[in-house]
Amino acid sequence: MKKITLNALHAKKHPKEGNPASKISAITAYDALFASIFDPIIDFILVGDSLNMSFNGKPDTLSANMDLMLYHTQAVCQGAKRAFIVADMPYGSYITEKQAVKNALRFYQESLADAVKLEGGVKKAPIIKALVSEGVAVIGHVGLLPQSVRGVGGYKIVGKSAQSAQKVLEDALSVQEAGASLVVLEGVVANVAQEISAKLEIPTIGIGSGAGCDGQILVFSDMLGLFTAFKPKFVRTYLDGAGLIQEALKRYVADIQAGHFPSADESY
């Protein structure tokens, strides 16, 4: 299957004459196994720092570090050969331009990631410019910023007031002007996200930001019903993953107890 590139993602928003626009499908993955399952179907795989919560059981994303993110990015790149792969730059890894370039280049040199993602708008525009000038493809992230959750006092929806809506628009435009190839809109009021998507040339990827974005992303363990501690409003569960796995485990344990597993055919 043909590798998905930035050009292919942009063509979904700006198709050739006569072709309709189409939405970008994105999902997170943290290992080679799930990446290989998602790869034939999905456009865009994000190795998200969300793994710190859904994979490592931490209360937020902030303790994820470069070594952790590189390990999981390398694993995803082993499993996915077709999808566009984006590595999340963890909290504290892009405070200065010099630090950001050093860490982003690690993703390029030590994995096959196609791009890196970082959070922030106007204030992070100089860092995005610095990365792009070094040949690194950057995905922006504005709106609700999980890496800033402690500093702002929780997960707060963006765009409810005119002032908040204007700020997130300015953030998105600054990210685009700095050279970002796409931008994630998280936790943005739907009509504001739709307006931003219409004004930007680059594609927008929504999470909790309504259907007016140019694409959508979910954390895979939420979408598959594997993470059950809580369910955000924006998540649609497409599979009772935890329930199905537990039922399979119960049958497995029952077969062991009854002496039905392994059978003669499953023994050497």
Give a description of the structure:
Homodecamer; pentamer of dimers. The active site is at 186 (proton acceptor). 41% of the residues lie in helices and 13% in strands. With 268 residues, it is α/β, with parallel strands linked by helices. It has two domains: 6-237, TIM Barrel; 241-267.
Question: Helices and strands in order, then pairings?
Answer:
Blueprint: H1 6-13, E1 24-28, H2 32-38, E2 44-47, H3 51-54, H4 66-79, E3 84-88, H5 97-110, E4 115-117, H6 125-133, E5 138-143, H7 149-152, H8 162-178, E6 182-186, H9 190-199, E7 204-207, E8 215-218, H10 220-223, H11 241-258
Parallel strand pairs: 1-2, 1-8, 2-3, 3-4, 4-5, 5-6, 6-7, 7-8
Helix pairs in contact: 2-4, 4-5, 5-6, 6-8, 8-9
